[in-house]
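In the previous chapter we treated chains in isolation. Here, by contrast, the input contains two separate entities that must be folded as one system, with a combined length of 575 residues.
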Amino acid sequence: MGKNIRLLQGNEACVEGALLAGVRFFGGYPITPSTEIAEGLSRRLPLVDGTFVQMEDEIGSLAAVIGASVSGVKAMTATSGPGFSLMQEHIGYAFMAEVPCVVVDVQRGGPSTGLPTKVSQSDIMQAAYGTHGDYHAIVLAASSCEECLLYTIKAVNLSEKYRTPVVLLTDEVIGHMREKVEIPDPEVVEVMERVRPEVPPEWYKHFEITPTFISPMASFGDGYRFNITGLTHDEMGFPTAKPVQIKAKLDKLRKKIERNKEDICEIKTAYMDDDPHVVVLSSGIVSRAANQAVKMARQKRMKVGAIQLVTVWPFPDELIMKYMKTCRHLIVAELNQGQILKEIERYIDKRHTKIDFLQRYDSELITPQDILQKIREVK
Amino acid sequence: MSKNKSQQSQSDRYEIRLSGSGGQGLILAGVMLAEAMGVEDGKNVVQTQSYGPEARGGASRADVVVSTDTIYYPKPMGLDLLLALTQEACDTYFSDLREHGILIIDSDLVHQPPTPDCFAFPFTQLAKTEIGHVMVANVISLGAIVEITKLSSKDAVKKVVKSRAPVGTEEKNLKALEVGFKIAREKMKSSKAAAV
C-alpha cells in the first residue's frame, strides 16, 4: 500500500493527529486562527462515535472537556489568545484534579483581541504560568504541518500518561499554511492510555501517591467511588487543610513532571554535530527561518547551528546545555519581546556564552535574512 | 548579483505569488497548484496566505513555494513568478519579484503594468466569454501558469482541479484550465516567432 500523503493545513493536521491519538471528544468555541480544528473535528468525530460540542464560550468549553475526560474519553479543545485566557480557570482545575486533556493554542497577536489574523509567539509564558497556583505544565510547540499531526498525538499521549493538561502551541502561519503531510497507518501510531486502577473499588484512591507520583485513574461510572474538586485535597479527593497533605499534593504535581523530564523533553537540532560557536535557539515557526538561515550560513562556510524547542515546558535546559560547552554566541529568536530569552538566561553562564536576541512583534515573521544578518553581527 | 542570489538559496526553490482581491479565488488556485506539484508530482511544497479580517474585498494573496529539497522557510524570499489580477496587487508586490522573474497580469484589470516584459492575458474577460462565468478566472490563470512554467504536469493539475472544484462546477473548471493552457501556448509561440 502506498503512503497516504495529503496537502493539509496545520489545523487540519491537528485534526488528523487528534483522531489517530484516540481523541473522541471536542468541546470548543470557534476563534480565528484555530477554527479549522473545530470545523474538522465537528465533521469527523461523529463518524467515529465521538462527540463534538460547541459550547457557549471557552470557559464552558474546557469544563466540557474535563467532564468528558473524567468520564474516560480522551478529550481536547483548540483556541487562540482571548479564548486561551478564558480557559485558564479550568486549566487550573484540570491541573489540580489531574485530568488529562489537550489544549491546542493557535497563537495570534495580543494582548486582548489583538491581531486575529496575524502570527505571534506571545503565549509562551501564558502556556506555562497562565492560571494561578503552583503547578508544572507540559507545553509543546509545532513548526510544520507534519509536526502538528505528530505533536498532537504526542500531546495526547503525554497528557494521558501523566494525568495532566498538555498545551500544544502553534500559530496563525502554521495553522493556515498547507504542506504535504503523511498520515500514518493507525496501526503504527503509538497511542498511550491512562493508567487504570487494578485494585478492588474499596481500596481505590483517585489521587494515590504512588512511587511514580502518577495515580491510576478510574472513570465516572466504572464502579469506583471518588471525589474531584478544585480544592486542595487528600488522596481520596476530599478537601484537606492538613499541611502534610497539602505539601504532598503540590509535591506530587511537581514531581510527576520534574522526574520525567527526560521522557517529556525533546529538542531538534540542525548542523550541531561539529560543535558550532554560534547557535540559533527558537521554537515553532521561527525554527523554519532559523534552519533556512543556518543552511545559508553553512553554504558560506560559517560554522553555525540551530536548536528547535519541541518541548517548551518543562524547559529542556539539560538538552540545550549539552551544546553550550562549545557555544560562544547564542541567538534567541522569537516572535515576542523575549519570553524564551528570559528563561534561557537562567541557565547560561554569560562569562562563557554571550546571549544575543532577535525579536519581532510587528505581526510579521522573522526572515532567514534577519537571522543571517544577526549571525554576521555576532561572528 | 543575481548569480550570487541563486547560490545563496536552494537551486531549484521556486516561489510563486497569486495576488488580487478577496473573492477572486486566488487561495483556492494556490491550493490547487500546491497540491498538483506536491501530492501528484511528489515535490515539496508549502502554500501560505495573507488576508485581513474581511470576508471579501481587501488585498488577497496566496504564496506557493516548491522545491525538490526540504523547504525550511515557508514564505517567499524573492518571487520567481507573480500573478497579479488587480492593479493594486501588481503595484504592491512587483518589487518582491526577482530579477528575471515572470510577471503575469490580467490585461483588463492591470492598466499600468510596471514593465512591458510581462505576460498579459484577459483572464476575467475570457472567463465571461469562453466559460460564461467570471468565477473561473482563477483557474484560467492557473492553466496559464502551468503552461508557462511547466512546474506541474498537466495531468496532475487536471486531477486536482477536478477534485478541488466546487461540486457541480468540475466541467466548467476543467474547460477553464484548457483555456489557460491554450492562451499561454499561443502567446509563447507568437513571442518565440517574434524573437526569431
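Chain A touches chain B at residues 5-7, 32, 116-117, 173, 176-180, 285, 288-289, 291-292, 295-296, 299, 365, 367-369 (CB under 8 Å). Chain A has 13 helices and 15 strands. Compare these points with the single-chain example from earlier in the chapter.
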